[in-house]
Amino acid sequence: MSRRAEFEADHPEVHVLSADQAGRVDLVMGAVGWLGDEEQVTTCVSLGGESSTVMRVELQELRGGWRTAVLKQSLPWLRRDESVAMPADRWRGEHTFYREVARVPEAAALVPRLMAANEARCLLLLEDFRGASNLASLYRGGSLGEGTAEALGGFLRALRRGTRGEQDAEFANGGMKTLSHRLLFEAPFGSRGQGGNGFGPDGPAPDEGALDDIEPGLGAAASALRSDGAFRDAVAKLGRRFLGAGDCLVHGAFHPANWLLLPSGDVRVVDPQYSSPGDPEFDLGTALAHLLLARQPVEVVATFLSAATGAEEAGREGPANTEEVEAGVDRPLVARYAGAEIVRRLLGGAQLPLEAEGGFRLGLLETARTAVLSGHLEVLET
Predict the structure, then answer these.
(1) Shared-domain flag, residues 204 and 95
(2) 8 A C-beta contact, residue 42 and residue 60
(3) Which in 6, 141, 204, 343 has the greatest CB count within 10 A?
(4) In a 3-state reduction of DSSP, which class is residue 160?
């Protein structure tokens, strides 16, 4: 019996939804009280979520009025491949993120408004941004722009300042945090014989031959890095910190695929399913890694970092060296998290559609190695 069939047998009250079944969506939304008087679901359009079912629903009133919303259902398997298990509690983590961020107006302005939630059916109803597109185009030569970079950096600063030490004491999202740890600190160092789809949505790490097909010499560089004891020890230490940290609320996957550009030019941050209490430097390092992977102009990166770090009192516990902690941000820790994310994206199963350029990946891989080992990343020193 498939994972989905077992779930449906054990949870007959949970209707598994899809965008091609508007009638079932209408039935479920009516059952949970999300439809107004004389309102019905007329159309559903898939928004292409890989891990969860995400769709735009159009709601039509009999008198002619209409509205749209985003309906998201997070079930214990990967939507793209139902044979891959996903943590069953991830719905709760995403719901908690939206609830906590609502208390921080500067950050709440950049996330979808949570309109309704239903735990029994693992459903969220969110504000819709019609005409928006995610910024994965950055990997193919697009430019973020300084205004968008400033807004995204400001979001992280507001999130850090507004949630430090203020999260729900019972919020952990442990299943997704463990999965994130596996994807970032274990999967890039595995092989095809070590786990198959056990590494969740990323899949197994490419072997040396596959990496050489991506860029000549990348396979040998990967092999050397994977056998570098000092580097592996540093990654393991960073991974232990990641699992144990809980100072602020973090988004957990703060990168271009989860940044939406609106027709107005404004930006929104979506899909916080990996959110948890953690180091704010994790979100900052993840974003920085992707800006470097996408070869964004130095001015854009500098604008993002300036907005994200901001001027504030450095009140959190950390290194005694005040030069290493600026504006409440541990810059060497940002560098280490950025380095780990770069390694994941260059050597792991979650390959990005980067434009081909001889030597780019090799050079960035060495930069990432230095960042993880020493906490030094040149862009953070300027």
Answers:
(1) no
(2) yes
(3) 343
(4) helix
Q: What angle do CA 229, 235, 238 make, to 5 degrees?
A: 140
Categorize the per-residue pLDDT at 363 as very low, low, confident or very high, splitting at 50, 70 and 90.
very high
Domain that holds residue 21: 3-126
Chain segment 207-261, per-residue pLDDT in tens:
999 999 999 999 999 999 999 999 999 999 999 999 987 889 999 999 999 999 9
C-alpha span between 11 and 305 (Å, rounded): 46
Same domain, 22 and 91: yes
Residue type, 206: P
94 and 212 share a domain?
no
Q: Note whether 242 and 267 are within 8 A (CB).
A: no
Indicate whether 66 and 158 sit together in one domain: no
71, two tokens = 């309906």
Predicted pLDDT at 199 = 54
CB within 8 Å of 2: residues ≥ 6 apart: 82, 83
Please give the tally of structural domains in the chain.
2
Q: How confident is the model over 129-175, as pLDDT tens digits?
A: 999 999 999 999 999 999 999 999 999 999 999 999 877 777 889 99
Same domain, 168 and 258: yes
Provide mean pLDDT across the span 47-71. Answer: 90
| C-alpha gyration radius of the chain | 21
CA dist list (Å): 140 to 189, 354, 356: 26, 6, 10
Helix, strand, coil fractions of the chain, as percent rounded to 5: 45, 15, 35
Q: How far apart are CA 240 and CA 238, in angstroms?
A: 5
Quote the pTM value.
Answer: 0.92
The helix (run of H) or strand (run of E) holding residue 236 is helix 229-244
Per-residue confidence (pLDDT) for residue 353, from 0 to 100: 92
User: What does 257-324 look like in DSSP terms, one character per residue?
Assistant: GGEEE-TTS-EEE---TT-EEE-HHHHHHHHHHHHHHTT--HHHHHHHHHHHH-S----S---S-GGG
